[in-house]
Write a structure and sequence with these properties.
Distance between the termini: 28 Å
Low-confidence stretches: 307-319
Largest sheet: none
Order of helices and strands: HHHHHHHHHHHHHHH
Number of helices: 15
Shape: globular
Strand content: under 5%
Radius of gyration: 20 Å
Helix content: over 70%
Structural class: mainly alpha
Mean pLDDT: 82
Number of strands: 0
Length: 319
């Protein structure tokens, strides 16, 4: 019997859903921190538009062979692709960046904790999926970890946490993104590069009218070293790498099992603040991390044990 040739590192990574989902959370946490950091320097709609146009241009040469192969399916699936682009690319990102103009990055990170619950709501509304008790418990445990980190172990922080206009924008944006995440189950079976490139391109086009209105109001992009560095990061990290990783993770394990990993965003966001802004490590960081990891593990194991057979394409998305 011939031995199988060793798999490449990239092949092993693309079949490791939990690693991919954690990587996406890390890159998106950086996106939120930077989105708040450049507030006032880059208008929110313009930031979203430049981000997706740049990302599309970067990935297009690599995706072109897949796009040529998938072109008939792309044409047939244009309405579905436009819906996914309009929710997961255009609306979510523009609203998130807009909200970060009026709220703190900490608030934005805390709001991400609602995402798994919102995905659960959409999964029930659209597909009648029900979360198991273990999944609900895991989500709540990891949510407690997030709250512990954000509050810095001080209940007064939570008692005085009041939503503002920016928080409301971000919550609505997350509701839209939860819809996108849930709808990935039925996405057209394009190659991963062609799928991402097409929805990024469509999403960029959908953003152009709002960008022109924003520019007509005198809100212009200030080009300097900081803004150019931020634009380079958001084009490559949160746009190309994170979306490829997250879409593949959802494809492998389904939306409900992937959603708890979004709780890692506030964890990673805090870690980035410690690393780059000089904040000190405290007990609540370790306690919060333990709760988040424990909650994700419980939710994942509960979902896995609830299956009597391997996941199918209909359950978890195209393979």
């Amino acid at each position: 019997m011939l031995a199988r040739p060793p798999r490449s590192f990239l092949a092993r990574v693309t079949d490791a859903p939990y690693l991919l989902l954690a990587l996406a959370a890390l890159l998106w946490a950086g996106n939120i921190v930077l989105g708040r950091y450049v507030a006032g320097h880059i208008p929110p709609i313009t930031l979203s538009t430049v981000r997706w146009i740049g990302a599309t241009l970067i990935i297009f040469p690599f995706a072109l062979p897949q796009i040529r192969r998938d072109l008939p399916l792309i044409r047939r699936s244009l309405p579905a692709l436009t819906l996914l682009a309009g929710t997961g690319i255009s609306t979510y990102n523009a609203m998130s960046y807009y909200g970060l103009q009026y709220t703190q990055a900490v608030n934005g990170l805390l709001m991400q904790s609602t995402a798994p619950l919102l995905v659960g709501v959409w999964s029930f509304v659209l597909y009648r999926d029900r979360l198991s008790m273990g999944q609900v418990a895991g989500i709540l445990i990891s949510l407690c970890g997030v709250v512990l980190i954000i509050s810095r172990g001080d209940m007064d922080t939570l008692l005085h946490f009041t939503p503002n206009m920016g928080d409301i924008w971000i919550i609505v944006a997350l509701f839209v993104y939860a819809f996108y995440t849930t709808m990935l189950r039925n996405r057209p079976q394009l190659g991963p590069l062609s799928f991402l490139t097409v929805i990024m391109g469509i999403g960029s086009v959908l953003l152009i009218p709002a960008t022109l209105i924003e520019l007509s109001l005198g809100k212009t992009l200030v080009f300097n070293r900081e803004t150019l560095s931020v634009l380079a990061y958001v084009m490559i990290g949160p746009s190309i790498i994170a979306y490829l990783a997250f879409n593949r993770g959802v494809e492998l394990v389904g939306a409900n099992r992937a959603a708890p990993f979004l709780h890692l965003m506030p964890v990673f966001g805090t870690a980035l603040a410690i690393l780059f802004l000089g904040e000190q490590v405290a007990w609540f960081h370790f306690g919060g991390y333990a709760l988040v990891i424990g909650g994700i593990t419980l939710a994942t194991l509960s979902a896995r044990s609830g299956r009597k057979s391997p996941p199918t394409a209909d359950e978890n998305g195209p393979h």
